[in-house]
Automatic annotation (TrEMBL):
Entries under Pfam families matching the protein: Metallophos
Annotated Calcineurin-like phosphoesterase domain residues: 54-311
Places the protein is found: Secreted
Transmembrane segments: 21-44
Family classification: Belongs to the metallophosphoesterase superfamily. Purple acid phosphatase family.
Cofactor(s) this protein requires: Zn(2+)
Protein name: Calcineurin-like phosphoesterase domain-containing protein
Main location: secreted
Subunit structure: Homodimer.
Gene Ontology molecular function, alphabetical: hydrolase activity, acting on ester bonds; metal ion binding
UniProt keyword Transcription regulation, yes or no: no
Keywords: Glycoprotein, Iron, Membrane, Metal-binding, Secreted, Signal, Transmembrane, Transmembrane helix, Zinc
Length: 391
């Protein structure tokens, strides 16, 4: 959706390019209602709601720069004059209001460092809608975040210092790990349920790097052995805790992984094997570091979500794991004129127990929303369901 920046700044009854009226101030008031929810932004308080669901909003490739003065890329000629970074901000706010997620995940290239006059201020503005919502949010880095005046480490440290974020620079209990922004989140069951004190969903966030540091290998970076070892050990620890008492479980709790650069395995799909579209080549590293094999062997991750390739938005299944793109979100990122920017939503649902309470995870579903007049929902699909006898 292309908003007129003059109207956005005036907070009046905004007029969209098709002539439909939208009251932006009313939307802000509604968003403030979301902000008033009694949410304590703490990793220890991440848990499923009383409806047995946990919803995640993925925002991929904002490419935020300097706000109103930053022009959009790859929009229709009629849209260009009024389009800027503020359109990205408006899209995030609309998504937060429409979906009311339990967690927002930014999967890299949050800012476009080369075009940022002040990367810190750009990050403040880019993440402002999430911060203002009081909804917990996290971020990982892409290949463009550090291309301004701040190093990769300083970019991640700035993110960690912002309000309402659960992001971490790196695991506190690990002496060495490659990259910045490797951490995990545990999502507990419904409060006062039999699994209310167990992590029934585990989220893994990793730094997929920026560019190859090996002189004779060009292209993008990859997830290194130190990161894979950390993931394996963390997963094994979580699996042991889940299978032990009280309320021991037979199988591992499902996991979801988020990072920026897609794995080479994303190129394995035929168009008939996925839901969504592939409109550009897979921008993975030129070497395969084996992380997909690590995921298979470790066994808990059911779905992987990346960004990086803005006009790809598909989900495919390979050896039992879903490999998905978020789809291009930001207006200062390359895209395709006439092809709406989009966001991905994931909803994880719990199973009902014999006594009518909430148990372990039953299913993982997803859909995408387009930044059009009605935030159109497309490509709804089930990514994973619990097999019989899971517990």
């Amino acid at each position: 959706m292309i908003w007129n920046n003059r109207n956005i700044n005036s907070y009046g009854g905004d007029r969209m390019r098709n002539g439909t009226s939208f009251n932006y101030m009313a939307a802000i008031i509604l968003l403030d209602a979301v902000c008033l929810l009694p949410i304590c932004v703490s990793a220890a308080n991440l848990r499923f709601g009383t409806n047995g669901q946990f919803k995640i909003l993925q925002v991929a490739d904002m490419h935020f720069a300097n706000g109103k003065s930053t022009r959009c890329l790859d929009v229709l000629r009629s849209q260009y004059a009024s389009c800027s970074d503020l359109n990205t901000t408006a899209f995030i706010r609309r998504m937060i209001h429409a979906e009311k997620p339990d967690l927002i995940v930014f999967t890299g290239d949050n800012i476009y460092g080369k075009d940022c006059d002040d990367p810190a201020k750009s990050m403040d503005a880019a993440f402002a809608p999430a911060i203002e919502s009081s909804i917990p949010w996290v971020a990982v880095l892409g290949n463009h975040d550090q291309e301004g005046s701040l190093s990769r480490e300083r970019v991640m440290k700035h993110i960690v210092g912002l309000k309402n974020t659960l992001s971490k620079v790196n695991p506190p209990d690990v002496n060495f790990i490659d990259g910045f922004g490797n951490y995990n989140l545990e999502v507990r069951g419904v409060e006062n349920s039999e699994l209310g004190n167990k992590s029934v969903l585990n989220l893994y966030l990793l730094d997929s790097g920026d560019y190859s540091t090996v002189p004779f290998i060009s292209g993008y970076g990859w997830i290194k052995p130190s990161q894979q070892l950390w993931y394996q050990r963390k997963s094994e620890k979580l699996q042991r805790a889940y299978k032990d008492g009280p309320v021991p479980q037979k199988k591992a709790a499902p996991g979801i992984a988020y990072f920026h650069i897609p794995l080479p395995e994303y190129a394995r799909f035929h168009p008939s094997d996925f839901t969504g579209v592939k409109q550009e080549s897979i921008g993975s590293a030129h070497v395969n570091s084996g992380f997909f094999t690590t995921l298979i062997e470790t066994g808990d991750v059911k779905a992987v979500f990346t960004g990086h390739d803005h006009v790809n938005d598909f989900c495919g299944k390979l050896h039992g794991i879903r490999l998905c793109y978020g789809g291009g979100f930001g207006y200062h990122a390359y895209g395709k004129a006439g092809w709406s920017r989009r966001a991905r939503v994931v909803v994880v649902s719990l199973d009902k127990t014999a006594k009518g309470g909430w148990g372990d995870v039953k299913s993982v579903k997803t859909w995408k929303r387009l930044d059009d007049q009605s935030l159109t929902t497309i490509d709804s699909q089930v990514l994973w369901t619990k097999t019989v006898g899971h517990r």
